Every structure is written in C-alpha cells, then in structure tokens.
Amino acid sequence: MSTIDASRSTDRNLDWLLENLRTKTPGIRHVLVLTRDGLKMCYTTGLERDGADQLAALAAGIQSLSLSASAEFGDSIGAGQAMVEFAGGLLLIVPAGAGAHLAVVAEEDGEVGLIAHNMNELVEQIGVYLTAAPRQAETSGERP
Amino acid sequence: MPSTTSDQPAAGVRAPLRETAVDALKIVIVGGFGVGKTTMVGSVSEIQPLSTEEVMTQASVGIDDASRVRTKATTTVAFDFGRITLNSSMVLYLFGAPGQQRFWFVWDQLFAGSLGAVVMVDTRRLEESFYSIDRLEHHRMPFVVAVNRFADGPALSSVRDALALSPEVPIVDCDARERSSCKTVLITLVEHLARMHDLSPVRESTP
C-alpha cells in the first residue's frame, strides 16, 4: 500500500504523527517522508511545497549514496542512518517503510541522539504505513 | 588506438589504477530521463561502477514520463561513477548525471572541475536533451553528442540540425550497452578536447 493512495483519514493521521514528532522533540524544524526515488509523500506544515520537493530529492540522493557506501565498506547492503551537519542546521535521514525514508531538518544545536531516537520510534510505530510501492508496468493496452 | 584495458564486461571487474596514469580527466555524462546514461557508465567502466539507481515508486506516475521507456524500472537519484583507462597515461573519471528535473541541482557539483561532457540523445525524445545542451553551452563546456540508437531513426545530420549544434561539435552513433561503442564516444570526446585545449593527442600514449 502506498500512502499516496491512502484514504484521507490515514493521510491526516500520518500528518498528525509527523506534527507530533516535531512538537514533542526540541529542535526539529521540519519532518518529511519521501519515496526512495526522491518524491515527497507527506510533511509538516512549516515546510513549503518547493522546499519539500527539494528535500525529498536530495535526501533520496544521500540515502542512495549511503547504500553504495554500505555495499563498498559495510558488512551488509542497506541504507543506514545519515546525518549532514551544516551552518544553521542538521539533516537526519532514516529508512522508513519499504521504499520510503523519513527525513528531519533540525536546529544546529538540536540534540541528535534524542531526535534520532524519536525518528526511529516513529518508524517502529508506523513504518508499515510509510511505504512507497514499486511502480506498476504501464498498461498493456497502450503498447504499440 | 592502444587499448590498455581488457574488453571483459565491466560487472565485477576490479582493475587497479595503473601507476603510469598521470592525466586524469573528469567527464560528465548528461541527457534526458531514460536515455542510457547509467547504462553507458556501467558498460564502459573498468571498475565496479558506483550506481545510485532506485526503484521507481508509484509516486512517480504522472511526474516521470516512462511511457516511451516502458522497461525502465529504476532511476538514478544521485549520480553514477565509473573509471576507464584510455592508454598508459590517461584515465577518465566518468560521472553520470541524474536525468529528472528534481535532481538537476546535483549537476553544478558534477560540472565542477569537469573538462568535457557527453550528451546522450534518444532520437524519439530529442526535446529532452535541450536542457543538457543549453546548460553545457552556458558553462562553456566542450561536449560531444552520442545518439543512443534504440531503433532506426533519423540520420546524424538531421539530428545535428534538429539540435542546432555548432559545426565543431562532434556527433556520433552509439549503443550504450556496448563497451567498445561507449569507448569510441569517449575517445571522440577526448580528441575533441585535445583540439580545443591543445592537449597531447590520445594516440600518443606516453610523453
């Protein structure tokens, strides 16, 4: 199941859970769920639509590079957690349900351990809803 | 052309960088969505290529137009990386750019320090290469156009006209799946760069 196709009530519940993560964790500015091919699924209200598009694309790139790093230098292949530190902020990304990732933009002085803990807790609770199914083959009727 | 690399398929091959390699050239491979950039890096690289292909999800329906690339199931979300040694002293580092608009922000980093580019073109979707060519011309980066032949299509001269290429820009046919074909494209680019930058020609293997 994809949250894109989910009913409105499920969407609203997910939005509420993302908002809840943001409000209960000091320092979190934005929360976004993205598909592995770099598209936004749902995000918190403070994030503009264009910012969400940009965050989804770059977070997918980072996670994909993480996967390659694990293949080259790790014991098993899998995207782990990624953290990027920059002037004025932090970006943390963890795998969510199949085909999806959870990204958080936090304040520079945010407590990384707590933020990451709460992110993983959220994924444990609702990761099953944070999935993006692979794209279906195009319908055969259109085939030339 | 002195071939210093084996013609084995790239998958799984680990060719150590030759100690005699002194000229490293960074090359970017650009082009529209699904024209074969990742395929090219994969088939020509002498090292296990870095690939950042991700499965296309249902969220991409209506955003990424796969209607004319039906068998496509994955897409590059960061960049591809590979390496090929052209002769005893010259090695190319290949960076394949992501095709979709939402990843274009990666291009600036890929272009930094690049000496030249390959623009891959699918003649059924010529318009998808306009952005690449505009961007390269804006950066004043030398490039060659490689027409990935998915099927019979217009002659190279027609493609040249349609893309409004300057006369000095080389345009060649290629099959991105074929190592030797991709290598020919890259040699064409290096020779083009040599003409423009007055580098020593590729064929002179050692100084």
UniProtKB/TrEMBL annotation, chain A:
Superkingdom of this protein's organism: Bacteria
Annotated Roadblock/LAMTOR2 domain residues: 15-106
Gene3D superfamilies: Dynein light chain 2a, cytoplasmic
Pfam families in the record: Robl_LC7
InterPro entries assigned: Mycobact_SerProt_Inhib_Rv3364c, Roadblock/LAMTOR2_dom
Name under which the protein is recorded: Dynein regulation protein LC7
Source species of the chain: Nonomuraea cavernae
Upper lineage: Bacteria, Bacillati, Actinomycetota, Actinomycetes, Streptosporangiales
TrEMBL record, chain B:
CDD domains assigned: Ras_like_GTPase
Gene3D superfamilies tied to this protein: P-loop containing nucleotide triphosphate hydrolases
Matches recorded under InterPro entries: Gliding_Motility_GTPase (IPR052705), Gpn (IPR004130), P-loop_NTPase (IPR027417)
Keyword list, A-Z: ATP-binding, GTP-binding, Hydrolase, Nucleotide-binding
UniProt-recorded Gene Ontology molecular function terms: ATP binding; GTP binding; hydrolase activity
SUPFAM superfamilies xrefs: P-loop containing nucleoside triphosphate hydrolases (SSF52540)
PANTHER family with a match to the protein in the record: ATP/GTP-BINDING PROTEIN-RELATED, GLIDING MOTILITY PROTEIN MGLA
Family: Belongs to the GPN-loop GTPase family.
The protein's name: ATP-binding protein
UniProt source species: Nonomuraea cavernae
